[in-house]
Specification:
By secondary structure, this protein is of the alpha/beta class. It is built from ten helices and twelve strands. Strands 1, 5, 6, 7, 8, 9, 10, 11 and 12 form a nine-stranded mixed β-sheet that branches. Helix 2 crosses helix 8.
Amino acid sequence: MSDKNNRSLVVVQLSGGNDAMNTIVPYNNGIYHDSRSSIHLTEDEIIDIDGSLGFHPEMLQIKNLWDERKVSIINGIGYPSPNRSHFRSMDIWHTAESESIAPDGWLGRTIREIDPEHKNVVTGVNFGRGLPRSLQCRGVPVASVGNLDTYGLMTDIQGSENRDYALSFFSRLYGPHLGRDVILEALGENGINAMIGADILSSANEKYSSSIEYSDTPISNNLKDIAKVIFADVGTKIYYAQHGSFDTHAGELVNHAKLWKDLSVGLGDFFDDLKEHDKEDDVAVLLFSEFGRRIEDNGSGTDHGSGGVSFVMGGSVKGGFYGEQPSLELSEQVEGDMKYNNDFRSTYATLLDQWLEIDPVPILGANYEQHDLFRKG
């Protein structure tokens, strides 16, 4: 396995509630077909894994990574007393707190642990608009990048002297002054961090060179930007991106296929890029969604459920199944859902302890059983 100092974690949020049953498909299970007369996938459509489960047909590049033992499938993932609200369930995943409302996110706490003195303002970077709850933590700077090609402060100002003058004024405006109140001090610190982070990250474009041609989709563009920053070696440890919406109440067969095609193609190119730059052993990728979908379809799609599936990918990953595939038997269902049997915080604990080599207990608030996800040595 790679050296600890070189490792980074890429988290991709499958927003909206990915349908686990049409992602890792129990294609020879009669209950699956009976429950999903409108949207089931058949044996001749899926990409077989083991004679009973198969990948969605648009997950070819992920299946290729599986064949290389670089994909771990985390079955039955969820948490106690599942919540079918997008907002509450996503908040639980973002904060690792299912009983109460937590003040900050698990990745924000992780960044604080990695860089407690805030020496690197790009230890964590979000690729997308806004700042996900999981990255929020008081006093922890995190950059948000919409598009690395155009990212930076005042990049539309023509001429380096004009831009330097504007940035100097910006620095003075937001810089520290004696006697200013707490809010202004926070604004000043955030302003300076934004300036520093913008210049650090925008330099990644200049350094990037690759033979890989990514598809022109939002998730592929985000993954390409992540690759650029990884190769620039600016000390970023946590990367975040979102893909969706997976809220497939209607038109699921078409919409779900497009979502997984875009993601699978993007991940295939991303891992080819990592391999070309001799970085595939240094990067772990987590795919997660806030919940699964109901066992029965609604005629065109599926409604909010539980019992989901997550993935951990990378050159240092020990590929395979982790956790049991939930039974579809009526006696094992929970109000029409697959029963979760695998607490998502076990996966978080594994990533923190075995990959980032950080004590997971202070971040997660408890000790969770871990998976044996990574190769030794």
